[in-house]
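SDR family NAD(P)-dependent oxidoreductase
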Amino acid sequence: MNIAGLSAIVTGGGSGMGAATARHLAALGAKVTVLDVNKDAVEQTAREIGGLGLVCDVTDSESAERAFEAARAAHGPARIAINCAGVAPAQRIVGRDGAMPLDSFRKVIEVNLIGSFNILRLAAADMAKLDLLESGERGVIINTASVAAYEGQIGQAAYAASKGGIVALTICAARDLARSAVRVMTIAPGLIGTPMLLGMPQEVQDSLAATVPFPKRFGRPDEYARLVQHILENEMLNGDVIRLDGAIRMAPQ
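Predicted structure tokens:
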């Protein structure tokens, strides 16, 4: 896939990996629509890249449908959809106050898993109607999981379950959409230097970075963005999950 000139949608584009991906795709010549629940952040990213910034709740079907309609009107149907929106709260199944509230678990599943599927289904429906590109494909959808899908830590039951669902969705969605010539891939990041991690005390950051075999540091959002580029450009990458983690395997806590 030649990225230049194509329409792209990036969720969670107000910060972190989503913002880095939006900037990178725009620099490669894509027409980028950025979606986020944070109005100020999404509009700031859009201004930086000369793209379209829209407030969107990925868990809400009508909100996502309106966003796709606006993106389609501005840039045409998207050939590229990148799911970066997500939440990562920590809570034990049984804590000092008793059982974890069911609504806490449900919210994480709704944002991370159902929200990703919501964008995937809408993007795939648009892509399936488009003409084939020279590469023989119609579009590419990339979801974001986490190493927690494989080594969820204590307090990550909801987060790990949501990201495990994305991993399981990958091959199924790729097979389902193969007849439409739409590829589906997933990236599973490890410790990435997003605002959440960089907001921790320095000694905590240093301790976490030391657990990465090599390189002994947090990953950078731009490294995620560059992997997105490679996936888009390599037509044989389909139906699989790529770990972006410096060979880390998470300990229980």
